[in-house]
Amino acid sequence: MLPKKQTLGEFIIENQHAFKYSSGELSSLLNSIRLAAKVVNHEVNKAGLVDIIGAHGDTNIQGEDQQKLDVYANDKFIQTLTRRNIVCGIASEEEDSFISINSIDENNQNKYVVLIDPLDGSSNIDVNVSVGTIFSIYRRVTPTGSPVQLEDFLQKGIEQVAAGYVVYGTSTMLVYTTGDGVNGFTLNPAIGTFYLSHPNMTFPEDGNIYSVNEGNYFDFPEGVKKYIKYCQEEEGERPYTSRYIGSLVSDFHRNMIKGGIYMYPKGSRNPNGKLRLLYECNPMAFLAEQANGYASDGYTRTMEVEPTELHQRVPFVCGSKNMVNKLEEFMQKYGE
Ligand SMILES: O=P(O)(O)OC[C@H]1O[C@](O)(COP(=O)(O)O)[C@@H](O)[C@@H]1O
Ligand SMILES: [Mg+2]
Ligand SMILES: [Mg+2]
Predict the structure, then answer these.
(1) DSSP label of 90
(2) Ligand 1 pocket test: which of 117, 210, 242, 248 has the largest number of ligand atoms within 8 Å of its C-beta?
(3) C-alpha distances in angstroms, 158 versus 155, 176, 181, 225, 231?
(4) For this protein, what does the record note about how its cofactor is bound (predicted)?
(5) How far apart are the first and last CA of the chain?
(6) Is any atom of ligand 1 closer than 6 Å to the C-beta of 117?
(7) Is 208:85 a contact under the CB 8 Å cutoff?
(8) What pLDDT does residue 84 have?
(9) Are 26 and 19 in contact (CB under 8 A)?
(10) Chain centre to alpha carbon of residue 72
(11) For labelling alongside 32, which of 16, 163, 254, 272 has CA 20 to 30 A away?
(12) Which positions ≥6 away from 282 have C-beta within 8 Å?
């Protein structure tokens, strides 16, 4: 008889005491993310059958063509988070500016802000390759009782109280941390329940997978080029295996399980890299560090980077600790 797996709901309740601000609010917030993830999962799974693939027709503030699923996922997460009367503000990849949310009882006592990448890996939606959702949660820094401010969102990654992602792949998983390790839950679609399937996830300190869009190789800093050559050399454990899905969530998830490094360096086309600090890099960095991995911009710890804009981009390397340290050595030695 297989031991009964713990559901996500049970796990959240059981572990909320471990959270230093434990008041049950964060648990309800995580539960609303769980609910929205199920709704989006349902739509992702039937992409191709219903009119949910392809461009939506609008572009977001970053000049990217929004996909229909980007907009759908954005709407579902914002609706669910707003209705639950827990957050005082939301920022999203698909929203130009942050959304201030008045609490239903109008006294604005809600303490949390959420930053979200509703659909990560948008270029993979139409081709049936796994995509995800990324979220990052902070306590507001401005006093409750007043509308949320930009400074409530522009906090360093080290101030995150929780972060996670949903991967809509061969199975749908929700993986998150509240600063007490990383746990993964798999959705049983038959009954719509997430079960604890991957307790205490950790990055192997070393790995043999490197994930980077080599199509941009000519454009990379010298240090990154040298590191990629190092990965491809015949020496000891090397050459490493090249794996790049093109969905940050999916590449990160695989590398966390098997050991590996993900890189999105800067280049002339992306002078600050492509990925967004607040709702892609910081949450993945928090998860990586909580899973014994590491994340930086090649020099500075990602979670120490001082945010200046809602949609700012940063160079990003993340994964098995010894692999990221090795890349940083190459950046120190060969630079840009
Ligand atoms: O196609 P490229 O330039 O390699 O970029 C792929 C990267 O861009 C992203 O798709 C950016 O995320 P969005 O899809 O949320 O905009 C990452 O998931 C992925 O790692
Ligand atoms: Mg993304
Ligand atoms: Mg996105």
Answers:
(1) E
(2) 248
(3) 8, 15, 15, 30, 30
(4) Binds 2 magnesium ions per subunit.
(5) 57
(6) yes
(7) no
(8) 73
(9) yes
(10) 18
(11) 254
(12) 115, 136, 157, 160, 163, 302, 303
Residues 6+ apart with CB under 8 A from 13: 27
Tell me how far the alpha carbon of residue 117 lies from the centroid of ligand 3, in angstroms.
5
Q: What is the Cα–Cα distance from 116 to 118, expressed in whole angstroms?
A: 6
Q: Judge whether 43 and 72 are in contact, CB under 8 Å.
A: yes
Q: Output the six-digit token pair for 322.
A: 């010894």
pLDDT at 230: 98
Task: Give residue 18's pLDDT.
Answer: 64
Residue range 80-100, pLDDT digits in tens: 998 777 899 999 999 999 999
Q: Judge contact between 120 and 131, C-beta under 8 A.
A: yes
Tokens of 18: 């471990």
**What residues of the chain score a pLDDT lower than 50?**
none
Angle, CA 251 vertex, CA 210 and CA 159 arms, to 5°: 105
**CA 204 to each of CA 201, 255, 309, 320: distance values in angstroms, whole numbers, following the listed order:** 10, 9, 33, 6
Going by the annotation, the residues of the binding site for Mg(2+) are: 93, 117, 119-120, 280
Whole-number Å distance, alpha carbon 6 to ligand 3 midpoint, is 30
Six-digit token string for 81: 């988070």
pTM for the whole structure: 0.95
Annotated binding-site residue numbers for substrate = 120-123, 213, 244, 274
Q: Considering just the CA atoms, what is the radius of gyration of the chain in Å?
A: 19
